[in-house]
Amino acid sequence: MFTVKISGAGQWTCDETKVTIPIEDSEGITIRKYVRNKPPEISVDGFILQDPFPLDNEAIAPEKIPGTADLMLESFVNTDMGLSLHQKALAYSHKDFDDFIIVDWEFTNTGNVDADDEIELPNQTLTDVFFIRQTRASEHPKQWNTSYGEFKTDTLRIPTIAYPERQPGAEFDNFGDVVPETGNILYPIHSGEAFLHIDKTASDESDWWEGGWRVGGTEDADVPLFVKHPLQMSPSEWAQNYEFMESGWLPYNGKAEMDPSLVWEGTHHSIRIDDEFFNYKYSSDLPGYFWTLMHMYGAGPWQLAPGESFRVVWADGVGSISRDKGWEVGKAWLAGNATFDGEDNLPWRYGADAFGSELAPTDNDRAKDQWIMTGRDSLHRNMYNAQWVVNNDFNVPEPPPAPSIVVSSKPDQVLVEWGTESESASDFAGYRVYRSVGTPDSTMVLIAEYPGSGTHSHSDVTASRGLAYFYSVTAYDDGNSNVPGLSGSSEVAESGLYLNRTTKAAYLTRPPGTLDEVIVVPNPFNLNAEAIQFTGERDKIIFYNVPGECIIDIYSESGDHIKEIVHDDGSGDQAWGVLAEEWSTTSSSQTVVSGLYIARIEETSNGKRTGNAVIRKFLIVR
Fold first, then answer.
1. Which of 298, 356, 421, 532 is the most exposed place for a label (fewest CB within 10 A)?
2. What beta strand segments (E) does 92-125 contain?
3. 85: domain range?
4. Domain total for the chain?
5. What is the mean pLDDT of residues 395-414?
6. Residues of 308-330 as b/e, b for ≥16 C-beta within 10 angstroms?
């Protein structure tokens, strides 16, 4: 009998043979993936874009998935404590519920301490069992952490929130990983984890709101207490680990706790790190910082007789300003005229008596940072939606399946075609076609709607020549058969934009031209002249009006041959490089430098040069 027993995985190491043992099913699979509908097929100009399906561990099995979730991962793990874990992770494609993943863990006192079916500890009773989790809410190495939900007046339980910070050593305010040449904000994300349900006891499955979340606090990711798996720990480390589960960071390192009168009785929450250390400029300046910040949070205790269980459910989620707003703010910041009219939402270290003048030297910088910080509201909204899902037994309005999609680049149009899978839904009502420009990560804009089942193609003749386009086709229903949504009443549901979104660009081209019509666009090419570049494709140069079959040879001003481009698709358009990484590069994949370049465009017939050629000169400024 153990006075204290610790089981689990460490930050650095785990032991899946003796401590946390994944259980294989009859086919030797340890993690199963179930989907509600067959994933749509996706192709652009003959390129297949969807992942292979099904793999060995995948199946269409809606009957196995709780509620109306679209996807579930499931696995089983035994531990050397005899406490077995049933893991489920759920995801939704509905637009109101696609910014988080719900994780549902059920722990059962089985007494099985290894991988076989034999029960080694059939009569054990586990007392004062705690669940503890160590998490980095962001993969970004430099980020601040905070939390929400410790106070009795809080309406959500979000033990860990990560958000961007200005990077040490940066010569400008790069809060949000803003690209100084374009204003593109690469990292506006607020990410976090939220408790959605904690069983009160093994016999009471109601949500333990008042005190179930027992401990929490932020530390360096490599704090010695939690980096190793249990078999690498000494008995004294087991005792320290368990003491944290009971009483938080205070006994371990003296970290100050929140006012006991403001939090639930018996809970131990450290003061939020961005409040406690507001007088530190960067997270890397914090005492004891080594690598990056992590958050520890836990729940309990539970008493478990043989066969008894408890559940803990949480969400991993994100929130940020919209892509459109991000581009708007980034470009305004680049131009030096960003503004923000809301209340100041920046952390205390941005105050006038702290580091405000250093972290955000100008009003322009400060406005950009304030816009990025509004992503906190989006994270809270998404976590509220996740809580709503759990409160409604995982049922959300269920849209029709997404259709398969085929996109074809053609002269004078981009043709979008889709399948009939969506029409299997009894309340199917129609299709919508969306498009983004320049990158698949930009905003999808509705360009067409087709009620009913009579149309399965759309000719996009509004596309501009030379620009990259990405498409998605959704299906929507009439709402009559759906469970109530966030509004409290039945509503129309639409399949997710990202289920069949294309990630390879399609282009509207023009019919072939003649040699005397060939032009180079843009000319001159200036890397900093964003207004005349192709949206989302900064390095792209196109030869327009070329013959349907030709070879383009590119030379430097000194006569060095740097690139041969074979054009044989029958159109009148040819980019310098088929793939983005090939634009404006030499035959050895080196980016060309500033200078004057000569292109020789020669007609071909059945792949052979004819001798008919024309010369074009163009200037590159990088």
1. 532
2. 100-109
3. 20-390
4. 3
5. 95
6. bbbbbbbbbbbbbbebebbbebb
